[in-house]
Specification:
With about 525 residues, this protein is α/β, with parallel strands linked by helices. It is about 45% helix and about 15% strand. Helix 11 links the parallel strand 3 and strand 4 (about 290-300). Belongs to the GRAS family.
Length: about 525
Protein backbone atom coordinates (compact mmCIF):
# COMPACT_ATOMS: atom_id res chain seq x y z
CA UNK A 1 0.00 0.00 0.00
CA UNK A 2 0.96 3.59 -0.43
CA UNK A 3 2.70 5.06 2.54
CA UNK A 4 1.86 8.27 4.37
CA UNK A 5 3.00 11.65 3.26
CA UNK A 6 5.91 11.93 5.69
CA UNK A 7 7.25 8.41 5.26
CA UNK A 8 9.66 9.11 2.43
CA UNK A 9 11.57 11.36 4.78
CA UNK A 10 11.06 9.80 8.19
CA UNK A 11 11.34 6.12 7.33
CA UNK A 12 14.75 6.67 5.81
CA UNK A 13 16.21 8.17 8.96
CA UNK A 14 15.83 5.02 11.01
CA UNK A 15 17.61 2.90 8.43
CA UNK A 16 20.35 5.10 7.10
CA UNK A 17 21.93 6.30 10.33
CA UNK A 18 23.55 2.97 11.35
CA UNK A 19 25.07 2.61 7.88
CA UNK A 20 27.05 5.75 7.28
CA UNK A 21 29.58 5.71 4.49
CA UNK A 22 32.31 8.29 4.31
CA UNK A 23 31.11 9.80 1.02
CA UNK A 24 27.41 10.01 1.86
CA UNK A 25 26.10 11.40 5.12
CA UNK A 26 22.56 12.33 6.15
CA UNK A 27 22.92 15.92 5.06
CA UNK A 28 24.14 14.92 1.64
CA UNK A 29 21.01 12.85 1.10
CA UNK A 30 18.93 15.83 2.10
CA UNK A 31 17.42 14.05 5.08
CA UNK A 32 16.12 16.44 7.75
CA UNK A 33 18.43 16.59 10.74
CA UNK A 34 18.58 18.89 13.74
CA UNK A 35 21.82 19.86 13.10
CA UNK A 36 23.28 51.11 -23.04
CA UNK A 37 25.21 53.64 -23.57
CA UNK A 38 26.65 56.51 -21.63
CA UNK A 39 23.67 58.74 -22.50
CA UNK A 40 21.41 57.01 -19.98
CA UNK A 41 20.65 59.50 -17.18
CA UNK A 42 22.27 57.63 -14.31
CA UNK A 43 21.97 60.53 -11.87
CA UNK A 44 18.22 60.67 -12.40
CA UNK A 45 17.91 56.97 -11.64
CA UNK A 46 20.02 57.25 -8.50
CA UNK A 47 18.04 60.24 -7.19
CA UNK A 48 14.76 58.39 -7.58
CA UNK A 49 16.04 55.40 -5.62
CA UNK A 50 18.15 57.07 -2.95
CA UNK A 51 15.36 56.59 -0.40
CA UNK A 52 15.29 52.82 -0.85
CA UNK A 53 18.03 52.22 1.69
CA UNK A 54 15.90 49.73 3.62
CA UNK A 55 15.06 47.65 0.56
CA UNK A 56 16.78 44.36 -0.15
CA UNK A 57 18.78 43.98 -3.33
CA UNK A 58 16.27 41.85 -5.23
CA UNK A 59 13.42 44.29 -4.59
CA UNK A 60 15.44 47.32 -5.63
CA UNK A 61 16.78 45.62 -8.77
CA UNK A 62 13.27 45.17 -10.14
CA UNK A 63 12.34 48.80 -9.62
CA UNK A 64 15.57 50.32 -10.93
CA UNK A 65 15.54 48.06 -14.01
CA UNK A 66 12.06 49.24 -14.95
CA UNK A 67 13.15 52.85 -14.55
CA UNK A 68 16.32 52.34 -16.57
CA UNK A 69 14.48 50.71 -19.47
CA UNK A 70 11.90 53.51 -19.46
CA UNK A 71 14.72 56.10 -19.64
CA UNK A 72 16.44 54.51 -22.64
CA UNK A 73 16.86 56.98 -25.52
CA UNK A 74 14.89 56.22 -28.66
CA UNK A 75 17.98 55.58 -30.80
CA UNK A 76 18.86 52.49 -28.76
CA UNK A 77 15.61 50.80 -29.74
CA UNK A 78 17.20 47.73 -31.29
CA UNK A 79 15.76 44.24 -31.37
CA UNK A 80 16.61 43.57 -27.73
CA UNK A 81 15.01 46.78 -26.50
CA UNK A 82 11.97 46.37 -28.73
CA UNK A 83 11.25 42.83 -27.61
CA UNK A 84 11.44 43.80 -23.96
CA UNK A 85 9.26 46.86 -24.45
CA UNK A 86 6.69 44.81 -26.35
CA UNK A 87 6.58 42.28 -23.54
CA UNK A 88 5.89 45.07 -21.06
CA UNK A 89 3.13 46.57 -23.22
CA UNK A 90 1.32 43.26 -23.45
CA UNK A 91 1.20 43.00 -19.68
CA UNK A 92 -0.33 46.36 -18.82
CA UNK A 93 -2.90 45.83 -16.12
CA UNK A 94 -6.52 46.90 -16.44
CA UNK A 95 -6.02 49.66 -13.89
CA UNK A 96 -3.14 51.08 -15.99
CA UNK A 97 -0.64 50.28 -13.25
CA UNK A 98 2.84 49.88 -14.74
CA UNK A 99 3.76 46.16 -14.63
CA UNK A 100 7.11 44.66 -13.74
CA UNK A 101 9.79 44.57 -16.39
CA UNK A 102 10.29 40.93 -15.46
CA UNK A 103 7.07 39.99 -17.19
CA UNK A 104 6.68 36.23 -17.48
CA UNK A 105 9.68 35.57 -15.29
CA UNK A 106 7.33 35.41 -12.31
CA UNK A 107 3.90 33.79 -11.88
CA UNK A 108 0.78 35.94 -11.82
CA UNK A 109 -1.70 34.04 -9.68
CA UNK A 110 -2.58 35.27 -6.21
CA UNK A 111 -2.41 32.33 -3.85
CA UNK A 112 -2.41 31.60 -0.14
CA UNK A 113 0.73 31.47 1.93
CA UNK A 114 0.64 27.90 3.08
CA UNK A 115 3.11 26.93 5.71
CA UNK A 116 5.73 29.23 7.11
CA UNK A 117 3.49 32.12 8.06
CA UNK A 118 0.17 30.37 8.52
CA UNK A 119 -0.60 32.43 11.59
CA UNK A 120 -0.64 35.71 9.75
CA UNK A 121 -3.57 34.95 7.49
CA UNK A 122 -2.35 37.24 4.73
CA UNK A 123 -2.22 36.46 1.05
CA UNK A 124 1.13 35.96 -0.63
CA UNK A 125 1.06 37.36 -4.15
CA UNK A 126 3.72 36.41 -6.66
CA UNK A 127 2.64 38.91 -9.27
CA UNK A 128 4.05 41.26 -11.83
CA UNK A 129 3.12 44.56 -10.21
CA UNK A 130 5.78 46.87 -8.89
CA UNK A 131 5.47 48.00 -5.33
CA UNK A 132 3.93 44.83 -3.89
CA UNK A 133 7.20 43.32 -2.79
CA UNK A 134 6.89 44.21 0.87
CA UNK A 135 3.15 44.64 1.29
CA UNK A 136 2.38 40.92 1.39
CA UNK A 137 5.32 39.74 3.47
CA UNK A 138 4.61 39.03 7.13
CA UNK A 139 6.70 40.89 9.65
CA UNK A 140 8.73 38.12 11.25
CA UNK A 141 11.43 40.25 12.76
CA UNK A 142 13.99 37.78 11.50
CA UNK A 143 17.73 37.85 11.22
CA UNK A 144 18.82 40.46 8.68
CA UNK A 145 22.46 39.40 8.78
CA UNK A 146 23.99 39.48 5.34
CA UNK A 147 21.05 41.13 3.59
CA UNK A 148 22.12 43.72 1.07
CA UNK A 149 21.15 47.13 2.39
CA UNK A 150 21.62 49.70 -0.32
CA UNK A 151 22.58 52.44 2.10
CA UNK A 152 25.11 54.38 0.08
CA UNK A 153 25.53 55.83 -3.36
CA UNK A 154 28.27 53.36 -4.25
CA UNK A 155 25.85 50.42 -4.16
CA UNK A 156 23.38 52.30 -6.31
CA UNK A 157 26.08 53.32 -8.77
CA UNK A 158 27.37 49.76 -9.13
CA UNK A 159 24.08 48.21 -10.15
CA UNK A 160 23.09 51.17 -12.30
CA UNK A 161 26.40 50.90 -14.17
CA UNK A 162 25.86 47.15 -14.56
CA UNK A 163 22.44 47.76 -16.11
CA UNK A 164 23.89 50.38 -18.48
CA UNK A 165 26.57 47.90 -19.50
CA UNK A 166 23.93 45.25 -20.29
CA UNK A 167 22.13 47.69 -22.59
CA UNK A 168 25.43 48.52 -24.34
CA UNK A 169 26.05 44.81 -24.96
CA UNK A 170 22.50 44.35 -26.24
CA UNK A 171 23.10 47.00 -28.93
CA UNK A 172 26.57 45.60 -29.78
CA UNK A 173 28.37 48.64 -28.39
CA UNK A 174 31.17 46.38 -27.15
CA UNK A 175 33.74 49.13 -26.75
CA UNK A 176 31.54 51.09 -24.35
CA UNK A 177 30.61 47.85 -22.55
CA UNK A 178 34.29 46.97 -22.16
CA UNK A 179 35.01 50.37 -20.63
CA UNK A 180 32.21 50.00 -18.08
CA UNK A 181 33.23 46.42 -17.24
CA UNK A 182 36.79 47.55 -16.47
CA UNK A 183 35.31 50.04 -14.02
CA UNK A 184 32.98 47.45 -12.48
CA UNK A 185 35.65 44.81 -11.96
CA UNK A 186 37.76 47.35 -10.07
CA UNK A 187 34.86 48.47 -7.86
CA UNK A 188 33.09 45.20 -6.99
CA UNK A 189 34.44 42.18 -5.09
CA UNK A 190 32.85 38.71 -4.67
CA UNK A 191 34.10 38.78 -1.05
CA UNK A 192 32.30 42.00 -0.11
CA UNK A 193 29.96 42.30 2.87
CA UNK A 194 27.18 43.61 0.62
CA UNK A 195 25.11 41.19 -1.45
CA UNK A 196 24.78 43.95 -4.04
CA UNK A 197 28.53 44.17 -4.56
CA UNK A 198 28.90 40.38 -4.71
CA UNK A 199 26.16 40.09 -7.35
CA UNK A 200 27.70 42.88 -9.42
CA UNK A 201 31.13 41.23 -9.24
CA UNK A 202 29.85 37.92 -10.62
CA UNK A 203 27.63 39.49 -13.27
CA UNK A 204 30.48 41.73 -14.40
CA UNK A 205 32.79 38.73 -14.72
CA UNK A 206 30.22 36.84 -16.79
CA UNK A 207 29.53 39.84 -19.01
CA UNK A 208 33.26 40.30 -19.56
CA UNK A 209 33.39 36.74 -20.87
CA UNK A 210 30.44 37.55 -23.09
CA UNK A 211 32.20 40.59 -24.60
CA UNK A 212 35.44 38.67 -25.17
CA UNK A 213 33.55 35.76 -26.72
CA UNK A 214 31.71 38.16 -29.01
CA UNK A 215 35.02 39.57 -30.23
CA UNK A 216 36.66 36.18 -30.66
CA UNK A 217 33.58 34.29 -31.85
CA UNK A 218 34.03 31.39 -29.41
CA UNK A 219 32.30 30.21 -26.28
CA UNK A 220 33.54 26.96 -24.79
CA UNK A 221 34.09 27.27 -21.02
CA UNK A 222 35.74 24.40 -19.18
CA UNK A 223 33.87 22.91 -16.21
CA UNK A 224 35.34 21.22 -13.16
CA UNK A 225 32.48 18.83 -12.51
CA UNK A 226 33.76 17.66 -9.14
CA UNK A 227 33.92 21.25 -7.92
CA UNK A 228 30.39 21.93 -9.21
CA UNK A 229 29.02 18.78 -7.54
CA UNK A 230 30.72 19.70 -4.27
CA UNK A 231 29.13 23.16 -4.38
CA UNK A 232 25.77 21.58 -5.23
CA UNK A 233 26.02 19.40 -2.13
CA UNK A 234 26.96 22.40 0.00
CA UNK A 235 23.91 24.27 -1.36
CA UNK A 236 21.78 21.25 -0.45
CA UNK A 237 23.09 21.42 3.12
CA UNK A 238 22.28 25.10 3.78
CA UNK A 239 19.17 25.72 1.65
CA UNK A 240 15.76 24.02 1.25
CA UNK A 241 15.65 24.34 -2.56
CA UNK A 242 17.40 21.09 -3.50
CA UNK A 243 15.66 19.10 -0.77
CA UNK A 244 12.35 20.50 -1.97
CA UNK A 245 13.09 19.26 -5.48
CA UNK A 246 14.18 15.83 -4.30
CA UNK A 247 11.42 14.95 -1.89
CA UNK A 248 8.46 16.34 -3.81
CA UNK A 249 9.63 14.48 -6.92
CA UNK A 250 10.24 11.29 -4.96
CA UNK A 251 6.68 11.39 -3.68
CA UNK A 252 5.26 11.74 -7.20
CA UNK A 253 7.42 8.86 -8.44
CA UNK A 254 6.43 6.71 -5.47
CA UNK A 255 2.77 7.21 -6.31
CA UNK A 256 3.39 6.28 -9.96
CA UNK A 257 5.18 3.10 -8.87
CA UNK A 258 2.35 1.93 -6.60
CA UNK A 259 2.00 -1.88 -6.88
CA UNK A 260 4.43 -2.04 -9.81
CA UNK A 261 7.05 -4.77 -9.60
CA UNK A 262 9.46 -3.61 -12.34
CA UNK A 263 10.38 0.06 -12.42
CA UNK A 264 12.88 2.18 -14.31
CA UNK A 265 14.04 5.67 -13.32
CA UNK A 266 15.81 7.96 -15.80
CA UNK A 267 17.61 10.86 -14.13
CA UNK A 268 18.60 13.41 -16.76
CA UNK A 269 21.38 14.81 -14.55
CA UNK A 270 22.08 12.45 -11.68
CA UNK A 271 25.27 14.08 -10.31
CA UNK A 272 25.99 12.29 -7.00
CA UNK A 273 22.58 10.62 -6.78
CA UNK A 274 21.74 12.33 -3.49
CA UNK A 275 18.02 12.12 -4.18
CA UNK A 276 17.56 8.40 -4.54
CA UNK A 277 18.42 6.63 -1.22
CA UNK A 278 15.26 8.02 0.39
CA UNK A 279 13.09 6.63 -2.42
CA UNK A 280 14.98 3.31 -2.42
CA UNK A 281 14.26 2.82 1.25
CA UNK A 282 10.53 3.34 0.99
CA UNK A 283 10.35 1.06 -2.07
CA UNK A 284 12.31 -1.63 -0.21
CA UNK A 285 9.88 -1.54 2.72
CA UNK A 286 6.62 -1.74 0.76
CA UNK A 287 4.07 -4.23 2.10
CA UNK A 288 3.90 -5.96 -1.28
CA UNK A 289 7.69 -6.21 -1.39
CA UNK A 290 10.36 -4.23 -3.22
CA UNK A 291 10.25 -3.85 -7.00
CA UNK A 292 13.08 -4.63 -9.38
CA UNK A 293 14.66 -1.22 -9.90
CA UNK A 294 16.69 -0.11 -12.90
CA UNK A 295 18.16 3.35 -13.13
CA UNK A 296 19.66 5.23 -16.06
CA UNK A 297 21.84 8.10 -14.91
CA UNK A 298 22.93 10.80 -17.34
CA UNK A 299 25.79 13.23 -16.91
CA UNK A 300 28.87 14.71 -18.52
CA UNK A 301 31.56 12.68 -16.71
CA UNK A 302 31.67 8.90 -17.02
CA UNK A 303 34.05 8.71 -14.06
CA UNK A 304 31.56 10.45 -11.77
CA UNK A 305 28.64 8.44 -13.17
CA UNK A 306 30.41 5.16 -12.43
CA UNK A 307 31.16 6.28 -8.87
CA UNK A 308 27.53 7.32 -8.34
CA UNK A 309 26.37 3.96 -9.70
CA UNK A 310 28.60 2.11 -7.24
CA UNK A 311 27.26 4.12 -4.32
CA UNK A 312 23.64 3.52 -5.30
CA UNK A 313 24.26 -0.19 -5.97
CA UNK A 314 25.86 -0.65 -2.53
CA UNK A 315 22.96 1.15 -0.90
CA UNK A 316 20.36 -0.98 -2.72
CA UNK A 317 22.27 -4.14 -1.78
CA UNK A 318 22.11 -3.24 1.91
CA UNK A 319 18.36 -2.85 1.50
CA UNK A 320 18.07 -6.25 -0.18
CA UNK A 321 16.65 -4.65 -3.32
CA UNK A 322 17.46 -5.79 -6.86
CA UNK A 323 19.07 -2.90 -8.72
CA UNK A 324 20.78 -2.12 -12.03
CA UNK A 325 22.52 1.10 -12.98
CA UNK A 326 23.23 2.27 -16.54
CA UNK A 327 25.42 5.38 -17.03
CA UNK A 328 25.14 7.55 -20.13
CA UNK A 329 27.89 10.17 -20.39
CA UNK A 330 26.17 12.58 -22.76
CA UNK A 331 24.28 15.83 -22.54
CA UNK A 332 20.59 15.05 -22.39
CA UNK A 333 19.90 17.10 -25.51
CA UNK A 334 22.13 14.67 -27.42
CA UNK A 335 20.44 11.45 -26.24
CA UNK A 336 18.75 9.24 -28.82
CA UNK A 337 16.04 6.72 -27.96
CA UNK A 338 18.36 3.85 -28.95
CA UNK A 339 20.79 4.83 -26.17
CA UNK A 340 18.22 4.32 -23.41
CA UNK A 341 17.83 0.67 -22.31
CA UNK A 342 14.04 0.53 -21.96
CA UNK A 343 12.45 -2.89 -21.43
CA UNK A 344 8.90 -4.02 -22.01
CA UNK A 345 6.75 -4.27 -18.90
CA UNK A 346 8.63 -1.62 -16.92
CA UNK A 347 6.98 1.39 -15.34
CA UNK A 348 9.10 4.30 -16.47
CA UNK A 349 9.74 7.54 -14.58
CA UNK A 350 11.83 10.48 -15.83
CA UNK A 351 13.21 13.01 -13.37
CA UNK A 352 14.61 16.39 -14.36
CA UNK A 353 15.88 18.95 -11.86
CA UNK A 354 16.66 21.85 -14.16
CA UNK A 355 19.51 24.25 -13.59
CA UNK A 356 21.87 26.36 -15.65
CA UNK A 357 25.22 24.80 -14.78
CA UNK A 358 26.14 23.59 -18.24
CA UNK A 359 27.15 25.86 -21.08
CA UNK A 360 25.30 23.83 -23.73
CA UNK A 361 22.87 20.92 -23.51
CA UNK A 362 21.47 20.71 -27.02
CA UNK A 363 18.17 22.09 -28.35
CA UNK A 364 15.13 21.61 -26.15
CA UNK A 365 13.00 20.19 -28.96
CA UNK A 366 15.24 17.11 -29.03
CA UNK A 367 14.64 16.52 -25.34
CA UNK A 368 10.90 16.88 -25.89
CA UNK A 369 11.03 14.38 -28.74
CA UNK A 370 12.87 11.91 -26.47
CA UNK A 371 10.13 12.29 -23.85
CA UNK A 372 7.47 11.58 -26.46
CA UNK A 373 9.30 8.47 -27.67
CA UNK A 374 9.84 7.11 -24.17
CA UNK A 375 6.18 7.75 -23.14
CA UNK A 376 6.88 7.57 -19.37
CA UNK A 377 4.27 6.96 -16.70
CA UNK A 378 5.50 10.07 -14.90
CA UNK A 379 7.84 12.98 -15.56
CA UNK A 380 8.87 14.91 -12.46
CA UNK A 381 10.00 18.38 -13.48
CA UNK A 382 11.54 20.96 -11.17
CA UNK A 383 12.12 24.23 -13.02
CA UNK A 384 13.90 27.39 -12.08
CA UNK A 385 11.43 30.26 -12.38
CA UNK A 386 13.75 31.90 -14.83
CA UNK A 387 13.60 32.06 -18.60
CA UNK A 388 16.61 30.76 -20.53
CA UNK A 389 15.24 31.98 -23.86
CA UNK A 390 14.76 35.37 -25.47
CA UNK A 391 17.16 38.19 -26.20
CA UNK A 392 20.28 38.97 -24.16
CA UNK A 393 18.59 41.88 -22.41
CA UNK A 394 15.56 39.74 -21.53
CA UNK A 395 17.81 37.11 -19.98
CA UNK A 396 19.92 39.70 -18.20
CA UNK A 397 16.93 41.38 -16.54
CA UNK A 398 15.39 38.08 -15.46
CA UNK A 399 18.62 36.57 -14.18
CA UNK A 400 19.62 39.73 -12.30
CA UNK A 401 16.38 39.68 -10.33
CA UNK A 402 16.48 35.90 -9.85
CA UNK A 403 20.07 35.68 -8.62
CA UNK A 404 19.79 38.84 -6.54
CA UNK A 405 17.06 36.96 -4.68
CA UNK A 406 19.23 33.84 -4.39
CA UNK A 407 22.15 35.87 -3.02
CA UNK A 408 19.80 37.61 -0.59
CA UNK A 409 18.48 34.26 0.67
CA UNK A 410 22.01 33.00 1.31
CA UNK A 411 22.94 36.28 2.98
CA UNK A 412 19.98 35.94 5.34
CA UNK A 413 21.27 32.56 6.53
CA UNK A 414 25.06 32.71 6.31
CA UNK A 415 27.57 35.46 7.24
CA UNK A 416 29.54 37.14 4.48
CA UNK A 417 32.78 35.35 5.32
CA UNK A 418 31.28 31.86 5.51
CA UNK A 419 33.37 29.50 3.31
CA UNK A 420 30.33 27.46 2.23
CA UNK A 421 28.53 30.58 1.09
CA UNK A 422 31.45 31.72 -1.05
CA UNK A 423 31.87 28.19 -2.45
CA UNK A 424 28.20 28.09 -3.47
CA UNK A 425 28.27 31.57 -4.99
CA UNK A 426 31.53 31.03 -6.86
CA UNK A 427 31.20 27.43 -8.08
CA UNK A 428 27.43 27.17 -8.49
CA UNK A 429 25.57 30.47 -8.87
CA UNK A 430 28.31 32.16 -10.89
CA UNK A 431 28.44 29.19 -13.26
CA UNK A 432 24.71 29.51 -13.82
CA UNK A 433 24.88 33.27 -14.36
CA UNK A 434 27.69 32.81 -16.86
CA UNK A 435 25.81 30.21 -18.88
CA UNK A 436 22.52 32.10 -18.96
CA UNK A 437 24.19 35.22 -20.29
CA UNK A 438 26.14 33.20 -22.87
CA UNK A 439 23.16 31.34 -24.35
CA UNK A 440 22.30 32.80 -27.74
CA UNK A 441 25.80 34.14 -28.23
CA UNK A 442 28.68 32.80 -30.31
CA UNK A 443 28.51 29.09 -31.18
CA UNK A 444 25.00 28.86 -29.65
CA UNK A 445 22.87 28.89 -32.82
CA UNK A 446 21.60 25.36 -32.10
CA UNK A 447 20.47 26.17 -28.55
CA UNK A 448 16.73 26.66 -29.01
CA UNK A 449 15.38 27.14 -25.49
CA UNK A 450 11.79 26.88 -24.32
CA UNK A 451 10.60 29.71 -22.12
CA UNK A 452 8.63 27.40 -19.82
CA UNK A 453 8.80 23.63 -20.07
CA UNK A 454 5.42 23.19 -18.39
CA UNK A 455 3.73 24.98 -21.29
CA UNK A 456 5.56 22.87 -23.87
CA UNK A 457 4.65 19.58 -22.18
CA UNK A 458 0.99 20.62 -22.04
CA UNK A 459 1.04 21.37 -25.77
CA UNK A 460 2.74 18.12 -26.74
CA UNK A 461 0.78 15.04 -25.71
CA UNK A 462 1.41 15.21 -21.97
CA UNK A 463 -1.13 15.49 -19.17
CA UNK A 464 -0.38 17.25 -15.91
CA UNK A 465 -0.61 15.13 -12.77
CA UNK A 466 -1.45 17.46 -9.86
CA UNK A 467 1.08 17.35 -7.05
CA UNK A 468 -0.63 15.47 -4.25
CA UNK A 469 -1.20 16.48 -0.65
CA UNK A 470 1.53 14.00 0.28
CA UNK A 471 3.97 15.95 -1.89
CA UNK A 472 2.85 19.13 -0.15
CA UNK A 473 3.49 17.41 3.18
CA UNK A 474 7.02 16.57 2.05
CA UNK A 475 7.68 20.20 1.14
CA UNK A 476 6.23 21.43 4.42
CA UNK A 477 8.45 19.10 6.39
CA UNK A 478 11.52 20.37 4.57
CA UNK A 479 10.61 24.02 5.16
CA UNK A 480 9.95 23.37 8.84
CA UNK A 481 13.72 22.88 9.15
CA UNK A 482 14.13 26.61 8.48
CA UNK A 483 12.68 29.27 10.82
CA UNK A 484 10.06 31.60 9.29
CA UNK A 485 12.48 34.51 9.78
CA UNK A 486 14.62 33.10 6.96
CA UNK A 487 11.90 34.13 4.54
CA UNK A 488 11.17 30.96 2.54
CA UNK A 489 7.64 30.66 1.15
CA UNK A 490 5.72 27.63 -0.15
CA UNK A 491 2.66 27.84 -2.40
CA UNK A 492 0.42 25.14 -3.87
CA UNK A 493 -1.68 25.96 -6.92
CA UNK A 494 -2.42 25.00 -10.52
CA UNK A 495 -1.31 21.46 -9.73
CA UNK A 496 2.23 22.62 -8.89
CA UNK A 497 4.28 23.39 -5.81
CA UNK A 498 6.35 26.59 -5.76
CA UNK A 499 9.16 27.40 -3.38
CA UNK A 500 10.44 30.94 -3.14
CA UNK A 501 12.12 33.53 -0.97
CA UNK A 502 10.02 36.41 0.30
CA UNK A 503 7.61 37.17 -2.56
CA UNK A 504 9.71 35.75 -5.41
CA UNK A 505 9.09 32.24 -6.70
CA UNK A 506 12.39 30.46 -7.43
CA UNK A 507 11.57 26.79 -8.10
CA UNK A 508 8.38 25.09 -9.34
CA UNK A 509 7.77 21.35 -9.09
CA UNK A 510 5.24 19.62 -11.35
CA UNK A 511 4.45 16.10 -12.55
CA UNK A 512 3.32 14.92 -15.98
CA UNK A 513 2.29 11.72 -17.72
CA UNK A 514 2.28 10.71 -21.36
CA UNK A 515 -0.99 10.17 -23.22
CA UNK A 516 0.53 6.94 -24.55
CA UNK A 517 1.02 5.53 -21.03
CA UNK A 518 -2.56 6.17 -19.85
Amino acid sequence: MMKGGFEVVHATLDMIQPHHEPIWDLASFGFPTTSTVSSIPRQTVENRCINLERNELSEWVEQITKQLIDDLPAETGTRDHTSLEAADTSMVCEDNFAPSVLGDFRPRKTVRRSVLDGSCGQELQWGNELGNQTDNVCENGGNDRGLSRLDDEQGLSLITLLLECAVAISVDNLGEAHRMLLELTQMASPYALSCAERVVAYFAKSMSSRVINSWLGICSPLINYKSVHCAFQAFNNVSPFIKFAHFTSNQAILEAFHRRDRVHIIDLDIMQGLQWPALFHILATRIEGPPYVRMTGMGSSMELLVETGKQLSNFAKRLGMSFEFHPIAKKFGEIEITMVPVRRGETLAIHWLQHSLYDATGPDWKILRLFEQLAPSVITLVEQDLSHGGSFLDRFVGSLHYYSTMFDSLGAYLPADDPSRHHIEHCLLHKEINNILAIGGPARSGEDKFKHWRNELARNCFLQVPMSNNSMAQAQLILNMFPPAHGYSLVQGDGTLRLGWKDTSLFTASAWTSHAST
